[in-house]
Design a protein that fits this description.
Elements lengths: L1 H32 L5 H24 L3 H33 L3 H6 L4 H11 L7 H8 L4 E4 L4 E9 L8 E8 L5 E8 L1
Helix pairs in contact: 1-2, 1-3, 2-3
């Protein structure tokens, strides 16, 4: 039993180092990719914690002095919960900031890139008049005349992804009657 306990304890120490690295990577990826709360994201961030609990249960099962082991493991679990909670809060904040909010849209131009998908899903922009669009989204960043009518553009912020080089714009094509003909998110 002592040999098996020593092996499991060694596995635990190695896993704790990997655990820390995994959660640092999770925090980085969640921040860079602006990942939102979902079943998949929760599953991914909870699994390392579940594996840690399973390793600790295995050590407890073969331990000679269970009371001493329980005290140590309780401390490890409490500390291990911190990065799990941080990742969950980070995912929740990303979910909140991904929801379209007119006030945030009007006052934080660089954050629009996270709200645009929710905007396009919630609001049917095709067929809306120029006035309705301006009332909803504010003054466009750029307006120019196109072949079929006016083209307006709203700056969204730096492009989404791991290496944001370009910026994204919501481009709206209006027909000659001033109604939205089509729209797209454009990266330049």
């Amino acid at each position: 039993m002592g040999f098996l306990s020593a092996i499991l304890r060694g596995i635990l120490y190695v896993y704790i180092c990997l655990y820390i690295l995994m959660y640092l990577a999770f925090m980085f990826i969640i921040g860079m990719a602006h990942t939102s709360l979902s079943v998949t994201s929760i599953f991914i961030i909870v699994m390392p914690f579940v594996l840690l609990v399973m390793i600790q249960k295995s050590i407890l099962y073969v331990a000679k002095n269970r009371n001493e082991e329980k005290k140590q493991m309780s401390g490890v679990l409490i500390v291990a919960l911190i990065p799990l909670v941080v990742c969950t809060v980070q995912l929740s904040m990303n979910t909140y900031t991904s929801k379209f909010n007119q006030d945030r849209w009007l006052h934080a131009e660089d954050k629009r890139v996270h709200m645009v998908d929710d905007l396009l899903q919630k609001y049917k922009l095709t067929g809306k008049s120029n006035e309705e669009i301006t009332q909803l989204l504010g003054t466009p960043t750029e307006t120019r005349n196109g072949e079929n009518g006016v083209i307006t553009s709203y700056y969204l912020g730096t492009e989404r992804g791991f290496i944001p080089i370009d910026s994204e714009h919501l481009v709206l094509q209006f027909d000659r009657d001033g109604k939205v003909l089509e729209y797209k998110v454009h990266t330049d």
